Amino acid sequence: METTIPSQSPEPLSAGLGSDKPASPSVIGEVNDETELTKLDPNYVPALRLTAMVSSVPLLFGALMAEAVFVPELGIPSGIVGLVVLIACAFWIIRIPTRRYAARGYQISVDRLRVVRGILWHSDTIVPFGRVQHIDVDQGPIERFFNIATLTVHTAGSHNASVQLPGLNHELAKDMREEIRAHIKRESL
Who wins on pLDDT, 107 or 22? Predict the structure, then answer.
C-alpha cells in the first residue's frame, strides 16, 4: 500500500548539488542510495541567510572595535580589518546558505527516513521507524516567519539518538510526523 505525503512540489536533489528540474510529488516508496532525494522548502535559504546576518553582527562589531583599538597601534591602514571581516560575513550570508540547502535532502519510505546533509562532512543517516521513540516538530521565530519547521526524530540507542531534518514546510513536517506515528502505531499492534 503506497501512501502519499502532500508537499509543496518537492524537487530532487542529486549528488548534493541540487537540480533545477521539478519532481513529482513525494510518494512513499523504497529508500536506497540511487533514488534522488527530495529537496527542502525553498524558504530554508532566506531563513539561513537571516540567521547568518544575525550571527554576523557581533563579528562585525568586534571588527569595528579592533579597528578602533589595535589598528592605530600596529600601523595597519585603516579599514583593512573591517573590510576583511565584511567580505567574510558577506560570503557567510550569501554563499553558505545556498550550499547548505543544496547539500541537504531526504527520502521517506514505508518503514524508514533517510536524511542526507553536509558540505565538508557528509552525513547519510537512515532511521528505521521501528527504532523511533518520539517525534518533534520545532519552530523558532525565524522558522515561524518563513513557515518552515525542523522535524526531529528521536530513536532508541545512544549513538545519534536523534536526527534533525530542518527546512521542511511546517505542514509537511506535521504530516511526516503523523505518517511516522501511524507506522509506529501499526507496528506496535
Answer: 107
pTM, 2 dp: 0.75
Domain-located, residue 5:
no
Q: Are residues 165 and 114 in the same domain?
A: yes
54, part of any domain = yes
User: Considering 76, 99, 122, which residue would you say is the last residue of a domain?
Assistant: 99
Please list, in sequence order, all residues whose beta carbon lies within 8 angstroms of the beta carbon of residue 123, skipping any fewer than 6 positions away.
115, 116, 117
Q: Fill in the amino acid letter for 132.
A: V
Beta-bridge mates of residue 37 = 13
The C-alpha atoms of residue 74 and residue 148 are separated, in whole angstroms, by: 47
Tens digit of pLDDT for each residue in 161-184? 899 999 999 999 999 999 999 988
Domain that holds residue 82: 45-99
DSSP the chain: ---B---S---EE-TTS--SS--PPPB-B---TTSPEEP--TTHHHHHHHHHHHHHHHHHHHHHHHHHHTHHHHTPPTTHHHHHHHHHHHHHHHHHHHHHHHT-EEEEBSSEEEEEE-SSS-EEEEEEGGGEEEEEEE--HHHHHTTEEEEEEEESSSTT-EEEEEEEEHHHHHHHHHHHHHHHHHHH-
Which triple of cell numbers denotes residue 43?
Answer: 524558504
